[in-house]
Design a protein that fits this description.
Order of helices and strands: EHEHEHHEHEEHEHEHH
Number of domains: 1
Radius of gyration: 16 Å
Number of strands: 8
CATH superfamily: Aldolase class I
Number of helices: 9
CATH class: Alpha Beta
Strand order of the largest sheet: 1-8-7-6-5-4-3-2
Shape: globular
Strand content: 15-25%
Largest sheet: 8 strands, parallel
Helix content: 25-40%
Structural class: alpha/beta
Distance between the termini: 13 Å
CATH topology: TIM Barrel
CATH architecture: Alpha-Beta Barrel
Bound molecules: D-xylitol-5-phosphate, zinc ion
């Protein structure tokens, strides 16, 4: 059970300190948005390169961008240990996942809430993680979409059948109130932005979320 705090909800003027504040986390989740694939604009490769130099934990890049085939592998090359592209934006997801892995990163594929899993299940051998979005990508602080748990269960079933170590990440509206149902459905990597950086003590929020996820699972 791994926690990946999203720095989208952190203070962008103090990102080094904000990363230090969650050094007990498993990853730091960095949301790259290009104002085309999603309406919002955040940060890109130069900022990620700077974060990689100072982050106490590995960086989990979530790329909400057009043309990930062209722009995602450089994040892996820069040193991000996990790189997630959206299947809705990818032209050749198999080749893209291979290119990410070739740069030494875990290759991960994200699905928006409206994107079904079944047509992509055959891509599992190319992937190290599947990200099931539990909000419409673009903004932090939105309400959790519980109906996405059905998709998490379907991905978990595919992973079980396939075997191997493929993680399932959930992202959006994950908090102490919603993390248990995610874990029960089969998720094992939990992104939390507002639930971590909106808490009085971010590190404590990370530990509490991990404990909740760990406590409720009987797989
Ligand atoms: C949304 C981003 C999320 C976001 C989550 O498009 O992908 O990572 O930061 O924020 P919360 O946890 O506040 O929903
Ligand atoms: Zn994200």
């Amino acid at each position: 059970m791994q926690i990946s705090p999203s720095i989208l909800s952190a203070d962008f003027a103090n990102l080094q300190a904000e990363l230090e504040a969650v050094k007990n986390a498993d990853w730091a989740h960095v949301d790259v948005m290009d104002a085309h694939f999603v309406p919002n604009l955040t940060l890109g490769l130069p900022v990620v390169e700077s974060l990689l130099k100072v982050s106490p934990v590995p960086i989990d890049c979530h790329l909400m961008i057009q043309d990930p085939d062209r722009w995602a592998p450089p994040y892996a090359e820069a040193g991000a240990k996990s790189v997630t592209f959206h299947v809705e934006a990818a032209h050749d997801p198999v080749q893209l996942a291979r290119n990410i892995r070739a740069q030494g990163a875990r290759a991960s594929m994200a699905l928006k809430p409206g994107t079904p899993w079944a047509p992509y299940a055959e891509l599992l051998p190319e992937l190290d993680m599947v990200l099931v979005m539990t909000v419409e990508p673009g903004f932090g602080g939105q309400s959790f979409m519980a109906e996405q748990m059905e998709k998490v269960r379907a991905v978990r079933e595919s992973v079980r059948r396939h075997g191997g170590e493929i993680w399932i990440q959930v992202d959006g509206g994950v908090s102490a109130a919603t993390i248990e149902q995610c874990a029960q459905a089969g998720a094992d990597v939990f992104v939390a932005g507002s639930a971590v950086y909106g808490a009085q003590n971010a590190a404590q929020a990370v530990d509490e979320l991990r404990a909740l996820a760990t406590s409720c699972v009987h797989r």
